[in-house]
Each structure stands twice: as structure tokens, then as C-alpha cells.
Amino acid sequence: MDRALAKVELHCHFKGTVTPDLLKRLAHRNGLQIPANLIDTKGGYQWENFLEFLNAYDATSSVVKTQLDYRDVAYEYLISAAAEGAIYVELFTSPGHAAAVGLSYRDSLDGIAQGIDDAERETGIMGRMIPTCVRHLGPIHALDVATTVVNDPHPYVVGFGMGGDEAQYSPADFKPAFDLVDAAGLACTCHAGEVLGADSVADTLDVLPVTRIGHGVRAIESAELIERIVDSAITLEVCPGSNLALGLYPDPDAHPLNALRDAGCKITLGSDDPPFFRTSIGHEYSRAKSDFGWTDEDLLQITRTAIDAAFVDEEAKNKLRARL
Ligand code: ADE
Ligand code: ZN
After folding, report:
1. Which ligand approaches the C-alpha of residue 245 most closely?
2. Angle at 50 (CA atoms; ends 52, 250), nearest 5 degrees
3. Phi/psi at 194 (5° precision)
4. Which of 7, 22, 120, 182 could disulfide-pair with 209, CB 3.0 to 4.6 Å?
5. pLDDT digits over 262-311, tens only?
């Protein structure tokens, strides 16, 4: 892995960064059991398909409970990403998961912000947060998260997003939530075109005020949609390792990374939920070279695209550009 090549990651779930090792340490500290069947006999996360993965991801939340836990998760992830050459990471946080274990939104933010500050002081990496709602928890939950985010702004909260089971509900159901954060000046992204096809991306672009799409890889199934994505300068947060691990595509040859790029789409690379998919931001950059034939210059261009599409302000972007 080329650690000297500057990397920027725009698609990474805070809870999805918790390694089994850290989960064990947090469970021990909190006097809790790790949920049954979450970790296999070899020490990795155990799941068989997309819905089982989402359940496993949700299950880790019961162990990550305190403000200090939140600080440690952010800190350990950012330190590991910085060691691979990452200079900026946007973390998808999940206020609903914090609330479910009795941690207030403010306390979860303060914990993560402390981890971000500690990691930046040690390595120079910059971290920011994108609170997300969980699609399968429905529109009322989404509006609740959006309201919380708008009512309690934080300098490190730079956007709003949605993950979860793409097959549940339709984008229009979440319009009130997205419109609320949009009106408050936060940029938006939404998972689409991951487990569902091109229509899911088109429907999202029709009704939600997004400038980025999480994954979006299945947009490649519609030439008309690709033209729309290119014309409207939408950035796709592509996570090839996640897509391969979840079985969306059987092998890199079948993955549309190069087809999307060749069609002129703005794309970035992300690790999504690194220990769940046995990947990392460094591996995603390396894989683009080894499996997709990219050059160092291509990778640097991805980093530039990611800085342009980041939700942080222009002053911070210029600092990042100066590091390339
Ligand atoms: N939450 C965490 N990872 C996700 C993914 N890959 N798709 C949808 N929701 C998620
Ligand atoms: Zn994701």
C-alpha cells in the first residue's frame, strides 16, 4: 500500500468502523456481553447477506454506549486511516443508535468530536460527521433525526444522510426530513443504487436535495440516468470492497467502477464498514490499482474529486488541497 498517497474517504459508517477487537474491549469496559453469533470462531464479524449484515451492524450498537466509547471509536478509526495515508474522513454517525442505548445526541457528538480532535493533534488527519437516519426505521424516525440535527448544530457536523435497507419505503417518504436539513444549510447524501437498481437512484435524485449518492453503482444499468448524473455533477461514493463482500458483483471484472468513471461520473472511494468487509480505505485505493488498473495519477484525481465533493467548508478544502 502506498501510504504516501493522500486519501480522502467520504463513505464510512462510524459504527461500521468498530473492529471486533475494539468491540471486545468496549464490552469488557462496560460489563456487557457481545451479542450471540455476532463474531465467528475466527474472530471476524459473522453475516451471510445484506440483511444479516445490517442486523450485525445494528447489533454492535448495544455495546458502544458511552461518550468515551464514541471518542475511542472515532479516535481508533481515524488513527488507522491516517496510518494508511488518509488526510480527511467523513463519518456517517447514527443518532438513532446512540438514542437506543440512552446516549444523548450532544453527548455522542462531543465524544466523537473529542476523538476527531485527538486524532488530528497526533496525525494531522481531519474528521467530520454526517448524521444519518436509518431507512428501514421509517420516515418518522428520519424526521426525528433531522430535527435533532437542525436544532443542535455542531461545527463538525457538515451534512445529513440515510443508510439502511434500500428496499423499504421510497425516497419521497423521506422528503420532509431531507428538506428540513437542506433548509438549514446542510448538504445531503443518500444510499441508493446499492441493492436496488437504477430506478432507486433516479427516484432519489427526483425528490431529495442530494449532491452525492452513497454507492450508486447500479446507476450503470441506465444510460439515461448516467447522463443525468454526469450533467448534474452528482458524486458517487463508490465502495468496491463492500459491493464485492456483499455479493452485489461476483468479482472485480463484473464491478462497474471503470464503466462509471469512463462514462464521466464523479466518483470517490470508500470502505463503507471496513472490518465487516475486511477492507480499509488504504485497501480500496490499492484495489483500484491492482484489480481495476488505475495509476497513481488516477488515484490522486479521486482524492481531488473527493475534496471537491466533501461537505466541509472551502477553507478546510483548501487546507486539504495544499497537502496533495
Ligand atoms: N449501513 C451501514 N452500511 C450500509 C450499507 N452498505 N448499505 C446500507 N446501509 C448501511
Ligand atoms: Zn454505506
Report:
1. 1
2. 130
3. -100, -70
4. 182
5. 999 999 999 999 999 999 999 999 999 999 999 999 999 999 999 999 99
Of 274, 208, 209, 212, the residue nearest 240 (C-alpha): 274
- Model's pTM, two decimal places? 0.98
Specify whether the CB–CB gap between 284 and 86 falls below 8 A.
Answer: no
Residues in the chain: 324
Protein residues with C-beta less than 5 angstroms from the ion ligand 2: 272
Question: Taking CB atoms and a 6 Å cutoff, what residues make up the pocket around ligand 1?
Answer: 13, 16, 57, 163-164, 191, 194, 242, 272-273
CB atoms within 10 A of CB 56: 20
- Extract the runs of DSSP E, i.e. beta strands, from the chain: 7-13, 86-93, 126-134, 159-163, 187-192, 212-215, 235-238, 266-269
Q: Compute how many other C-beta atoms are within 10 angstroms of the C-beta atom of residue 155.
A: 10
Residue 118 region by backbone torsions, left for phi larger than 0, else alpha for psi between -120 and 50, else beta: alpha
CATH number belonging to domain 7-311: 3.20.20.140
Q: Is 194 a catalytic residue?
A: yes
Residue with cell 488515484: 299
State the DSSP code for 295: -
Q: Are 305 and 235 in contact (CB under 8 A)?
A: yes
Task: From 31, 98, 90, select the one nearest 60 (Cα to Cα).
Answer: 98
Residue pair 6/321 in contact (Cβ under 8 Å)? The answer is no
Average pLDDT over residues 120-127: 98
Strand extents, DSSP E, 206-309: 212-215, 235-238, 266-269
Q: Which ligand is nearest to the CA of 18?
A: 1
Catalytic member of 9, 166, 194, 284? 194
